[in-house]
Amino acid sequence: MIKKLAENVWKIQLSSNLYLLDIGKLVVIDTGDRKDRQQLLLFLERVVEPAKVDIVVFTHLHYDHIGNFDLFKNAWFYASRAEIMDFKRDAKRTVLREDIAGLFDIELLPVETLNLKQLEFVLTPGHTRGSICIWYPKHRILFSGDTLFNDGFGRTDLPTSDPAAFKRTLLKLTGYNFKILAPGHG
Q: Is the pTM higher than 0.90?
Protein backbone atom coordinates (compact mmCIF):
# COMPACT_ATOMS: atom_id res chain seq x y z
CA MET A 1 0.00 0.00 0.00
CA ILE A 2 1.21 3.50 -0.83
CA LYS A 3 -0.08 6.53 1.00
CA LYS A 4 0.71 10.23 0.81
CA LEU A 5 1.34 11.51 4.36
CA ALA A 6 1.97 15.15 3.52
CA GLU A 7 3.13 17.30 0.63
CA ASN A 8 6.05 15.42 -0.96
CA VAL A 9 6.03 12.65 1.69
CA TRP A 10 4.94 9.09 0.88
CA LYS A 11 4.72 5.91 2.90
CA ILE A 12 4.99 2.46 1.34
CA GLN A 13 3.65 -0.06 3.83
CA LEU A 14 4.49 -3.73 3.47
CA SER A 15 5.89 -5.90 6.27
CA SER A 16 7.98 -2.84 7.19
CA ASN A 17 7.64 0.75 6.03
CA LEU A 18 9.67 2.73 3.55
CA TYR A 19 9.27 6.51 3.42
CA LEU A 20 10.07 8.78 0.47
CA LEU A 21 10.59 12.52 0.87
CA ASP A 22 11.11 15.01 -1.92
CA ILE A 23 12.83 17.89 -0.14
CA GLY A 24 15.00 19.21 -2.96
CA LYS A 25 16.79 15.88 -2.74
CA LEU A 26 14.99 12.56 -2.95
CA VAL A 27 15.39 10.89 0.43
CA VAL A 28 14.35 7.35 1.36
CA ILE A 29 14.04 6.34 5.00
CA ASP A 30 14.64 2.59 5.38
CA THR A 31 14.39 0.23 2.40
CA GLY A 32 12.14 -2.52 3.69
CA ASP A 33 12.39 -6.29 3.91
CA ARG A 34 13.90 -8.14 0.95
CA LYS A 35 10.96 -10.59 0.90
CA ASP A 36 8.74 -7.65 -0.16
CA ARG A 37 11.02 -6.58 -3.02
CA GLN A 38 8.67 -7.11 -6.00
CA GLN A 39 5.71 -5.44 -4.31
CA LEU A 40 7.94 -2.59 -3.13
CA LEU A 41 9.15 -1.96 -6.67
CA LEU A 42 5.59 -1.80 -7.99
CA PHE A 43 4.60 0.80 -5.40
CA LEU A 44 7.86 2.75 -5.48
CA GLU A 45 7.86 3.17 -9.25
CA ARG A 46 4.46 4.91 -9.00
CA VAL A 47 6.21 7.75 -7.21
CA VAL A 48 9.88 7.72 -8.29
CA GLU A 49 12.43 5.82 -10.30
CA PRO A 50 14.68 4.19 -7.65
CA ALA A 51 17.86 5.22 -9.49
CA LYS A 52 16.89 8.88 -8.95
CA VAL A 53 16.96 8.63 -5.15
CA ASP A 54 19.82 10.75 -3.76
CA ILE A 55 19.98 9.68 -0.12
CA VAL A 56 18.97 6.64 1.92
CA VAL A 57 18.86 7.00 5.70
CA PHE A 58 18.55 3.89 7.86
CA THR A 59 16.86 4.22 11.25
CA HIS A 60 18.82 1.09 12.19
CA LEU A 61 20.39 -1.84 10.34
CA HIS A 62 18.04 -4.75 10.97
CA TYR A 63 17.36 -6.89 7.89
CA ASP A 64 13.74 -5.76 7.57
CA HIS A 65 14.86 -2.12 7.24
CA ILE A 66 17.85 -2.53 4.89
CA GLY A 67 16.76 -5.42 2.66
CA ASN A 68 16.32 -3.46 -0.58
CA PHE A 69 19.29 -1.10 -0.34
CA ASP A 70 20.52 -2.21 -3.76
CA LEU A 71 17.48 -0.78 -5.56
CA PHE A 72 18.93 2.69 -4.99
CA LYS A 73 21.99 2.47 -7.19
CA ASN A 74 22.94 6.17 -7.16
CA ALA A 75 22.18 6.99 -3.54
CA TRP A 76 24.45 7.83 -0.63
CA PHE A 77 23.70 5.67 2.44
CA TYR A 78 23.62 6.89 6.03
CA ALA A 79 23.22 5.40 9.51
CA SER A 80 24.36 6.56 12.93
CA ARG A 81 28.03 6.20 13.90
CA ALA A 82 27.10 3.73 16.65
CA GLU A 83 25.11 1.59 14.20
CA ILE A 84 27.98 1.62 11.69
CA MET A 85 30.44 0.62 14.44
CA ASP A 86 28.23 -2.28 15.53
CA PHE A 87 27.89 -3.41 11.91
CA LYS A 88 31.67 -3.33 11.40
CA ARG A 89 32.20 -5.19 14.69
CA ASP A 90 29.66 -7.94 13.97
CA ALA A 91 27.47 -7.60 10.88
CA LYS A 92 25.43 -10.73 11.55
CA ARG A 93 24.45 -9.68 15.10
CA THR A 94 23.61 -6.17 13.88
CA VAL A 95 21.53 -7.19 10.85
CA LEU A 96 20.02 -10.32 12.50
CA ARG A 97 20.23 -12.35 9.27
CA GLU A 98 23.48 -13.68 7.88
CA ASP A 99 22.30 -13.79 4.26
CA ILE A 100 21.28 -10.10 4.26
CA ALA A 101 24.40 -9.07 6.22
CA GLY A 102 26.49 -10.76 3.51
CA LEU A 103 24.75 -8.82 0.73
CA PHE A 104 25.01 -5.47 2.50
CA ASP A 105 28.26 -4.31 0.94
CA ILE A 106 27.77 -0.56 0.64
CA GLU A 107 29.67 2.35 2.09
CA LEU A 108 27.78 3.68 5.08
CA LEU A 109 28.32 7.29 6.06
CA PRO A 110 27.57 8.70 9.52
CA VAL A 111 24.20 10.46 9.58
CA GLU A 112 25.82 12.92 11.98
CA THR A 113 27.66 14.34 8.92
CA LEU A 114 24.54 14.67 6.75
CA ASN A 115 23.50 18.29 6.36
CA LEU A 116 19.87 18.40 5.32
CA LYS A 117 18.45 21.56 6.84
CA GLN A 118 14.85 20.29 6.55
CA LEU A 119 15.47 17.23 8.74
CA GLU A 120 16.82 16.64 12.23
CA PHE A 121 18.48 13.32 12.98
CA VAL A 122 17.79 12.31 16.58
CA LEU A 123 19.95 9.69 18.29
CA THR A 124 17.55 7.29 20.02
CA PRO A 125 19.44 4.32 21.50
CA GLY A 126 17.34 1.48 22.81
CA HIS A 127 15.97 -0.81 20.11
CA THR A 128 19.56 -0.79 18.90
CA ARG A 129 22.51 1.11 20.32
CA GLY A 130 22.60 3.19 17.14
CA SER A 131 18.90 3.70 16.43
CA ILE A 132 17.81 7.10 15.16
CA CYS A 133 14.56 8.90 14.59
CA ILE A 134 14.13 11.59 11.96
CA TRP A 135 12.21 14.77 12.71
CA TYR A 136 10.63 16.70 9.83
CA PRO A 137 9.43 19.90 11.52
CA LYS A 138 7.75 21.39 8.43
CA HIS A 139 5.00 18.76 8.62
CA ARG A 140 5.63 17.72 12.28
CA ILE A 141 6.40 14.14 11.22
CA LEU A 142 8.51 11.88 13.42
CA PHE A 143 9.97 8.92 11.50
CA SER A 144 10.58 6.60 14.43
CA GLY A 145 11.90 3.34 12.99
CA ASP A 146 11.38 0.63 15.59
CA THR A 147 11.76 2.99 18.54
CA LEU A 148 8.15 4.14 18.82
CA PHE A 149 4.92 2.75 17.36
CA ASN A 150 1.33 3.95 17.39
CA ASP A 151 0.56 1.34 20.05
CA GLY A 152 3.80 1.09 22.01
CA PHE A 153 7.54 0.94 21.52
CA GLY A 154 10.24 -1.34 20.15
CA ARG A 155 11.96 -4.35 21.63
CA THR A 156 15.17 -3.98 23.58
CA ASP A 157 16.15 -7.65 23.93
CA LEU A 158 18.11 -8.00 20.68
CA PRO A 159 21.90 -8.43 20.32
CA THR A 160 22.68 -4.71 19.83
CA SER A 161 19.84 -3.30 21.95
CA ASP A 162 20.57 -0.81 24.72
CA PRO A 163 17.76 -1.23 27.24
CA ALA A 164 19.44 1.05 29.79
CA ALA A 165 19.28 3.99 27.36
CA PHE A 166 15.72 3.37 26.20
CA LYS A 167 13.96 5.25 29.01
CA ARG A 168 16.05 8.38 28.28
CA THR A 169 15.22 7.98 24.59
CA LEU A 170 11.49 7.82 25.26
CA LEU A 171 11.73 10.89 27.50
CA LYS A 172 13.65 12.73 24.78
CA LEU A 173 10.94 11.96 22.22
CA THR A 174 8.27 13.57 24.41
CA GLY A 175 9.87 16.87 23.38
CA TYR A 176 8.75 16.39 19.78
CA ASN A 177 5.19 17.59 19.29
CA PHE A 178 4.55 15.40 16.26
CA LYS A 179 1.33 15.50 14.29
CA ILE A 180 2.22 12.33 12.37
CA LEU A 181 4.09 9.36 13.79
CA ALA A 182 5.73 7.40 10.96
CA PRO A 183 6.97 4.13 12.52
CA GLY A 184 8.98 1.32 10.95
CA HIS A 185 6.00 -1.05 10.92
CA GLY A 186 2.24 -0.69 10.72
A: yes
